[in-house]
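Sample entry (80 residues):
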Amino acid sequence: MTLEVIDVTVRFDEHGTLTPLHFTWKGSVYQVESTGRRWQDQAGQHILVMVASGHIYELTFKSGEGRWYVGQTGPKRMLA
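Predicted structure, serialized as tokens:
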């Protein structure tokens, strides 16, 4: 998977939990509507986010670099 560096605006809570609010990728700003699964591995902290269009993105924060990356994107959420 190819990761691309992105700018992310986040909120830190009192426990140090990161919550992405919006991110800029390829000249567009994506408003985060909700966050999903989170996990940590050797690559960094991963957070699945859903944006207003219904698309799901995987954001990765590499704390050693202080940078955010966007990788794989998921399909649009299906509405019932």
